[in-house]
Design a protein that fits this description.
Blueprint lengths: L6 H5 L1 E2 L17 H9 L6 E8 L1 E2 L11 E2 L4 H20 L5 E9 L7 H14 L2 E11 L6 H10 L3 E7 L3 H7 L5 H13 L4 E8 L6 H12 L5 E6 L21 H17 L3 E3 L3 E3 L4 H8 L3 E3 L2 E3 L6 E4 L4 E4 L2 E5 L3 H9 L5 E6 L2 H16 L1 E3 H7 L4 H6 L3 H7 L3 E4 L2 E4 L7 H6 L13 E2 L2
Parallel strand pairs: 2-5, 2-14, 3-4, 5-6, 6-7, 7-8, 8-9
Antiparallel strand pairs: 1-21, 9-11, 10-11, 12-13, 15-16, 16-17, 18-20, 19-20
Length: 450
């Protein structure tokens, strides 16, 4: 990067803006009764996405920030899935007419540790309770270490079209430091086996800022992965929050990179991927030129939701499972995080909603501004303001941080158009935060801006 970025900007703790308002501002005042009303009033011609959370893994990776539980046995998983099927029924029954499903995403945890036959039954149940578009995308997150041939066959038979492989780093030293050992040959074999059954749309997840990681090892990992030519990469900065994720205390903080080194690692991965003909999508995704996400970016309809960047057009996201977050026109809802609390709510015949957020007019305005910045690196305040009965002048006057960002050369202000400068794309969260009306009063510890 060619601009001098202050240590303060690099060290800032900021939301990833997969929603606005962000999850720390959800409240228990939003209950299952609210969610039930919102579902019942969904337009009958609506389309939606489904997110299904499977909160189990076979072993804990020390860097993990997900809601997950370690189990060596299948019994806790099958018990959970019985509850999940009941939640599917409860949610589907609340609609006047269930919406058309265009995307189905299995996240976790590790969804692919579900026994193959039960995974097939689960997908079949979802398809009985919801209508699916003929071209619906069905995606699943995969831990390559636990994926077997029977599960690969089940994924194909169930209609999975996209798989996301957690690679993170291929440096053995880093892998030992985070308790995730998986060599390149394993990643290559899983990639080949998925493609052999027709699952050709592949994402690789990489992480920078891990313990003992270096700029050179980041580049080496990127080069090895490029050789397998996945369609997309997601490149995340490690968020060290041991106060909230106690297993992260197993990581020696002395082995973690500082802000300048983290920035160098992120920039090195990005440069390596772009040099290999991947297009940069937002601040942390990369895609081949013919990928649907690249097409969405060029056409101006790239979106951002709880799964990150997406070409999903649906404004409704139905979250299923413990801790899952959903989004409807009225606002956000989140299920009980704890598996026991989640199961108890479902067993009582209630929706599992623990908290949420109803959107106010100003929330909708700022959400659209932030999403366009995050997706396009550019926003026309006058154009969006007209949709929300306000003006660009008012927005500029009430966002004094923009002048500071312009002085730092992070943005250009040209009339009502705010543009993130090319060499500051990785700091787009900093720009987006200028429009966050809740951030200053928040005591939540977010991840670093870089």
């Amino acid at each position: 990067m060619n601009i001098a970025l202050s240590a303060r900007l690099l060290e800032e703790r900021l939301p990833r803006y997969t929603s606005y308002p962000t999850a720390p501002h959800f409240s228990g005042t939003i209950t299952g009764n609210h969610y039930e009303t919102w579902l019942a009033t969904t337009p009958t011609d609506a389309s939606a996405s489904l997110y299904v959370h499977i909160p189990f893994c076979r072993s804990m990776c020390w860097y993990c920030g997900c809601h997950t539980k370690i189990t060596r046995q299948d019994e806790p998983i099958t018990k959970y899935l019985a509850v999940l099927r009941r939640e599917i029924d409860l949610v589907a029954d609340r609609f006047t007419q269930p919406p058309l499903i265009r995307h189905l995403h299995f996240g976790g945890g590790t969804p692919t540790i579900i026994p193959p036959r039960i995974f097939l039954d689960l997908v079949a149940h979802l398809r009985r309770r919801f209508p699916f578009a003929d071209d619906a995308e069905q995606a699943v997150e995969i831990d390559p270490r636990t994926l077997n041939s029977e599960m690969i066959a089940a994924l194909a038979a169930s209609g999975v079209t996209r798989a996301s492989l957690g690679v993170q780093s291929l440096d053995p030293t880093v892998q030992r430091a985070v308790n995730r050992i998986q060599d390149f040959d394993l990643i290559a074999r899983v990639t080949e086996n998925l493609r052999a059954v027709g699952i050709g749309d592949l994402n690789f997840d990489l992480i920078y800022g891990l313990p003992l990681q270096t700029e050179a090892s980041c580049i080496d990992t990127a080069h090895q992965c490029i050789a397998l030519r996945p369609n997309r990469f997601a490149v995340f900065g490690y968020a060290h929050v041991p106060t909230f994720k106690k297993h992260q205390r197993k990581i020696d903080e002395a082995t973690l990179a500082g802000s300048i080194e983290r920035l160098a690692q992120a920039d090195a991965i990005a440069t390596t991927l772009v040099d290999a003909s991947y297009h940069r999508i937002g601040f942390d995704h990369f895609a081949l030129p013919n990928d649907a996400m690249s097409t969405a970016q060029r056409a101006g309809y790239l979106r951002r939701n709880f799964q990150g960047y997406t070409n999903d057009h649906s404004n409704i996201l139905i979250g299923l499972g413990a801790s899952a977050i959903g989004q409807l026109g009225q606002g956000y809802v989140q299920n009980e995080v704890g598996i026991s609390a989640y199961a108890a709510r479902i067993a009582s015949g209630e929706l599992a909603t623990a908290r949420g957020r109803e959107l106010m007019p100003d929330d909708r305005l700022r959400a659209e501004i932030i999403e366009r910045l995050m997706c396009d690196f550019r926003v026309d305040l006058e154009k969006i303001g007209r949709k929300h009965a306000t003006t660009a002048d008012r927005l500029l006057q009430t966002t004094p941080q923009l002048n500071e960002l312009a002085n730092e050369q992070l943005v250009r202000i040209e009339g009502s158009v705010i543009t993130v400068t090319d060499n500051a794309h990785i700091l787009v969260r900093t720009v987006a935060s200028a429009f966050d009306a809740y951030l200053a009063a928040s005591n939540h510890r977010y991840s670093r801006a870089v």
